[in-house]
Amino acid sequence: MASNNFPSQSHLLVIIIFITTLLTPITTNNTSPQPWNILSNDNFAGKLTSASSSVEAAAIDFGHVTKILPSAVLNPSSVQDIIDLIKLSFDSQSSFPIAARGHGHSFRGQAAAKDGVVVNMRSMVNEDRGIKVSRTGLYADVDTAWLWIEVLNKTLELGLTPVSWTDYLYLTIGGTLSNGGISGQTSRYGPQISNVLELDVITVIFPRNFIGKGEIATCSNDTNSDLFYAALGGLGQFGIITRARIKLELAPKRAKWLRFLYTDFSEFTRDQERLISETDGLHFLEGSVMLDHGPPDNWRSTYYPPSDHLRIVSMIKRYRVIYCLEVAKYYDETSQHSVNEVRGMIKCLPLYPKKMYFMR
pTM for the full model? Predict the structure, then answer.
């Protein structure tokens, strides 16, 4: 989390401007939206709606910061429906914005399409298809409208799990792969976009072989690699990801889970960096902040023994800000020594007077 090389204010300003530029809905051209005669297009019968309830639902995301009204919402039953919509916009004299929306967990309208069409990706989920797991190849081919929790439940049936996660599992595959996908496993395995073997992408804007005509392309590190790396973390600006081949590993059987509380930020980051630097260290490491405001259990009280709740509340009220370092180490019957390694890591951390920890 911490680094000795902090960017300057000018660098931060450039980064902010660059990110702000990217956080815009997909558009195939820069012309004004066309009249909504596409609602009568036979290709989208029963799938494209301008009903106020659907439009209102697509206008607001999890952040509740913006309200951006589309003109219609597409509920596709197949990838071909999305291709047809993009081609229609591209071929029209007046194109219209298109944005893919998964579970709507963006914060500032990234999945919005002002006066355009929001594509409800979740409408393509089919219980009979969409997740294919290879135990021998250690990968899963997944339609990106599925949620990570749904993929996990499927892979666990074969004793497997994706290598890298987000902390919150009720997000779509396509949504997180378009953003990055970060969790406490990132320091060991990298973000989710670093653990993808292959993608299917409907092209929207791309400068070389694909020019945004709604073409479907399979890409990887070796095939159409420019598109592959542009789509991963590209915020949907280069295409809509419809399938991903995700790396898997054997699911851990057990985990030793610890949480450290700090009142000093420097001590908190020093320990964090030290644990990350271990060659064969922790499988999960994440920092968070506990503040003296909001509901009394806003620090996720279920993570701590009930007998210590009053002590934690007292610390928060006294110091106003508490820093939490959460770590985990996986092990099984054949690697019991890993638990002793965790205990050794604890002992190597200086016991600052105001630090406390909990172990499970």
Answer: 0.79
